[in-house]
Amino acid sequence: MSREMSNVTRAKHGRPVHHWRRDVVELAALFTAVAVADAVANLIGHGPDGPALLVISALALAGTAGFHTWWARRHGHAPPTSDTEARPLPTGRRAGQDEQGPSAPAPQAAPGQSTLWRMRTTVRDEPGSLAALCTALAGERVDILSLQTHPLADGTVDEFLLRAPGELAASGLTRVVSLAGGADTWIERADAHDLVDAPTRVLGLAARTALDAAELPLALRQLLGRCTIRQVPASPFGGGRAPEGVPVEGALEDTVMRLRAPEGGVITVERPYLPFTPTEFARARALVELDARLGPRVPRGQDVLTLPEGNEITVRRADIRDIDAAKEMHERCSARTLGMRYHGPVGDADRYLNHLLSPRYGRTLAVRTASGRIVGLGHLLWDGDETEVALLVEDSWQRRGIGGELLGRLVAMAIEAGCESVYAVTQASNTGMVAAMRGLGLPLDYQIEEGTLVITARLDTAVIGSAVLPHEVAEGRSGGRGARG
Fold first, then answer.
1. String of b and e for 142-153 (b: at least 16 CB within 10 Å)?
2. Strands, E, within 266-400: which ranges?
3. Going by C-beta distance under 8 Å and a sequence separation of 6 or more, which residues neighbour residue 198?
4. Cross-strand pairs, 188
5. What whole-number distance in Å separates Cα of residue 431 and Cα of residue 479?
6. Could you read off the pLDDT of 183-213 as tens digits, one per residue?
């Protein structure tokens, strides 16, 4: 029993199991056969029937060698059959899945050399089409981790999550799919987050949307992949043209879907590289309907911070209900501060607040004093497929670290939302905002045109791991210079 367990252990680590007693017997038999053959050759080699006997001896030796080879292969290198753990499981096959018998493909490369892919293709809506596609993928040692079907009028769109050998490129996969009957194939690299099944992912997005109205654009983007989302209010700011009417059930046009926004206006989602399916449209419409039924909502948690001089401030989320307090802060700000923030006539500053404080267009953080006055605002604004950060700190509260505190928290929100970058639009003379962006410790890109400065911070995960942590950034800057947005 103990010897069998030892054999299994060694086999699990990739080392073949040999028995030294069997090796000694085989070698002894081989040397005996050679000695007997030599004696026979010397004895009868000079007789009248010597040549015939030599031929017979040669055949006997050949038969002995063949028997030895067969015996060695059968008993010397065969895996133990008394314990299935001793048989290595082929890479790319899930534990517990039945093997396909002796004809099963050889084990694949070691874990870590495989690649995850998301693939979508259209097949004919007839029996056997999907089976032919799956068989073709299996022939390339591709493991299908998940499969969703999207029925269409003239076919079926199948969406796969695949684990393929690392040496199989995207072009190779699409070629296999095309030969198996797939058309309009789209493929991209996937990651571990895609391993979550579709119902679980949709329920998670619905829960996030239920807690925070600002999550709706992010939920739609995560649901539909890389896309551009724009919302136009029923009465655009500045008196622009109102959006075209959209039916209550929305409208789907190939790569564009339009949904009626909960508070009026239109939400437009575009994905030029991949048409939307009716299933995706129904899921997006359900998220928007959930948001409309729940109404305005913003998490009301807050953090109490102490400034270097000892004053306490609170930082919390703000929304349209804080518009009066925000207007009062505008009245206490100088024309220069308002001009640096809004880049336009100072008299129009109040008109921006309805848009800025609406959770439909992003997230806003407000800084309040112990008396309840707002002395700082930080905005994270969804701008299509980009994200903007903006700051405004009341004059008498500048250079106390409030701007850096707000900016660090806004960047943490952007990281949590999965944004690849954030940008700030300011003036070249706004040294406070420039210092706050540089203080993030992230890669920055600068663009200057006619006195307007655009600073873009790239939120690379590799850099964030060593340079930025969600709350350490904000807390680490609390004693630095403030930033005027």
1. bbebeeeebeee
2. 266-270, 302-306, 312-318, 362-368, 374-383, 386-393
3. 146, 148
4. 118
5. 17
6. 888 888 887 777 777 788 888 888 888 888 8
